[in-house]
Structure to design on (116 residues):
């Protein structure tokens, strides 16, 4: 049991730090939107995608580093965190792509109607 304690403690610490960093990031982004009274904040989606991408990559690298240190619980928790952050990144990127596609199609239709 004593050999599992550092492994579980490290897994909880690393996962907690990542979640705390993500909460702080979203809080700061929310404060920016609050400062504009609910308006749009330029570059918000890019910053979110960058933060999630870097978070997923760093979790994967930490998990890979833990494989050599014989810490299976920390490795598994970092792999799960990397997977969750990557899925969240995919959802945000997909939504952004869909919004851009809809805007492009609307502008194209309006241009076509204006030319008639």
């Amino acid at each position: 049991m004593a050999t599992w304690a550092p492994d579980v403690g490290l897994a909880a610490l690393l996962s907690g730090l990542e979640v705390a960093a993500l909460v702080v990031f979203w809080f700061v982004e929310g404060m920016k939107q609050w400062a504009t009274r609910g308006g749009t904040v330029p570059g918000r989606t890019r910053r979110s995608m960058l933060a999630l991408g870097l978070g997923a990559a760093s979790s994967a690298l930490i998990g890979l580093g833990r494989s050599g240190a014989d810490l299976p619980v920390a490795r598994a928790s970092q792999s799960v965190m990397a997977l969750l952050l990557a899925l969240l990144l995919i959802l945000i990127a997909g939504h952004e792509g869909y919004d851009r596609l809809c805007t492009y199609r609307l502008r194209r239709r309006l241009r076509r109607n204006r030319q008639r």
User: Anything to note?
Assistant: The mean pLDDT is 88.
